Amino acid sequence: MASIDLLISDCDGVIVDSEIISHRVLFEALSLHVPAEQLHAALEGTFGLTVPSIIDLIEKRFDLTMPETFDADLRRQSEKVVAEEVQAIPGVREALLAIKLPLAVASNSRLHNVQASLQRAGLTERVAGNIFCAEMVRSPKPAPDVYLLAAERMGIAPGHCLVVEDSPTGVLAARTAGMQVIGFTGASHIPAGHDQALRELGVAAVINDMRDLPATVANLAAD
Predict the structure, then answer these.
(1) Whole-prediction pTM value?
(2) Which of 44, 128, 145, 150 would you call most buried, defined as having the most Cβ atoms within 10 angstroms of its Cβ?
(3) Judging by DSSP bridges, how do beta strands 131-133 and 180-184 pair with one another?
(4) Alpha helices of the chain — where are they, by DSSP H?
């Protein structure tokens, strides 16, 4: 097996516990246009997708056209609430400081949001500006573009990269890029049985506690 020379982490749901907050704000905004019960069903499995992708899905499913300012208003409200409420995933800072590999972050969120999340988690210096976001590439996750960009800019072949992801969208992106993946299931938004869903997508390991990440990385590196 190829050596592991670069660790790449997703941000939302891996470094900060933000997905549950963003989903709540999104649900509240969409529920003004779609009945709540139908909306719950329509949003199942969408975490990890970009907000424009989710809005497009809802518009097509319910034959709607959202107000012209919907996306911008939602982004502004979501950023405000996340900034006020988000907390780092327990143990993530200690885990990422303990792993002696170069670290990059690859996210479907916008750059300034990732920067704010890293600051909240105390990981700005650890990441050292190695942030790669959907706005930097042609297609967001589940396309592999953002992971391939991270590998290219860091000078590491995709087969030598190890990714930490929480969503099927992100796992698919990383696996399509040719990278090994550790699935993380410890964030607040993770549903029951999610570990099995990630295993079916080909993750190399699944952890529920960030304190297990350094040993898991070391075990995969030793294989």
Answers:
(1) 0.85
(2) 150
(3) unpaired
(4) 19-30, 36-43, 51-62, 70-85, 92-98, 111-121, 124-127, 145-154, 168-176, 194-200, 213-222
Phi-psi region of 180 (alpha: psi -120 to 50; beta: other; left: phi over 0): beta
Question: What pLDDT, on a 0 to 100 scale, did the predictor assign at position 82?
Answer: 82
> Are the CB atoms for 196 and 23 separated by under 8 Å?
no
CA distance 219 to 93: 20
Single-letter amino acid, residue 117: S
Mean per-residue pLDDT, 60-75: 90
Instruction: Please give the structure tokens belonging to residue 74.
Output: 């939602």
Q: Does residue 45 have a pLDDT over 90?
A: no
The answer to whether the beta carbons of residues 7 and 217 sit under 8 Å apart is: yes
Report the distance separating Cα 112 and Cα 133, nearest Å: 10
Residue type, 60: K
Mean pLDDT of 136-164: 97
Find the farthest-apart pair of alpha carbons in the chain and give their distance in angstroms, rounded: 53
Q: Which of 11, 21, 4, 2 is nearest to 184 (CA)?
A: 11
Measured distance CA(199)–CA(1) in Å, rounded: 19
